[in-house]
Amino acid sequence: MVTHLYLGVIILAVFAAAVANADIKVVCAKDSVKITWKISAELVPHAARLFLGSCMPSQLNVLPTGEGEAHFNYQFADCKFKRLMKGKRLLYQNELTYRPQAKSKPAAFVQPIECVYKRPEGWVPPFLNPGSGASEGRGGLVFHMALLNEQLTGVARTNIIPLGSFMPIWAAVEQKSHQPLLLLMEHCVATTSPELGPDSPVYPIISNKGCLLESVRGNSVFLPRYHSSAVILYLQSFKFDLGQEVYIHCKLVAWDPEVFDESKKACHYVKENGRWELLDDPSQSSLCSCCDSTCNSRSKRGVEWESHSFSHNSVLGPLIIVDPSDSKARNIPQKAQSELMETA
Q1: What global pTM score does this model have?
Q2: pLDDT digits over 257-273, tens only?
Q3: Is 133 left (phi over 0), alpha (psi -120 to 50) or beta?
Q4: DSSP reduced 3-state for 147
Q5: Which of 258, 256, 174, 270 is nearest to 222 (CA)?
Q6: What is the pLDDT of residues 149-159, one digit of tens each?
């Protein structure tokens, strides 16, 4: 019995070594992928153990040399592809695997597969659900704020955030009968209470009329917009009251999308360029230069619009930032998904 197990391990190791040197070609089409995986003669009898996600080869050709070509021709809707939206890119991801043992066992070989496309025009996240986690603001506008999952495809299922990881915060305003509006995050702080008082300990995130301070201290950034009425703050978690409940307080402003000035903007610091950049029009990034001093409105039209702007104070939480190396972090209870929307 022991001898059989030993021989089995040797055979698996030989097959794994053969797969590791595999020749793989990937062709990404509009909504599908074609993959050709050239395998050794030893693996041809075991081609049924090759997978693209959950799919077996759609075709196997045996070459005159005895080697084989496993073809995977599938739509992205098949094989459990992951669909991700990152900035201006649409990604479809999966894995090619060789599984000589049952699927419950780890794969002997894994090769990531990724097809990247330009984000479709007018794309709106599928989780957008008017009225969910919303609160009424001035002028009948409805404001939203929520914590998203890592893939930006829906509301996060946990409120526990490992230190240094990213917590995407989505904010939007429902415009209804209004002319198109631009949503800005004018001011954001983290604190320990759902109510912000004069003596509350605060950790500044956005200040100075839309300057993202965490882009200087860390790697936080505003993601490219999918619509003027929404914004995603890709916020890197920070050291503030670790292991305890934290609330994010933001002043959201609905503004004229044609008017930018020092007091109405979304700016983040681009470390590669060593300067502040305006999210909505990098050519006007000079408006962000005041982020290192004091930002005031200089536009006459901006001053006139001030009386017509709509703002709302939103609160998100509780969130719990934990240090993964802290054993106590594993025992912190998680909040339900519905609690990760804005608290009124």
Answers
A1: 0.60
A2: 877 888 899 999 999 88
A3: left
A4: strand
A5: 270
A6: 888 878 888 88
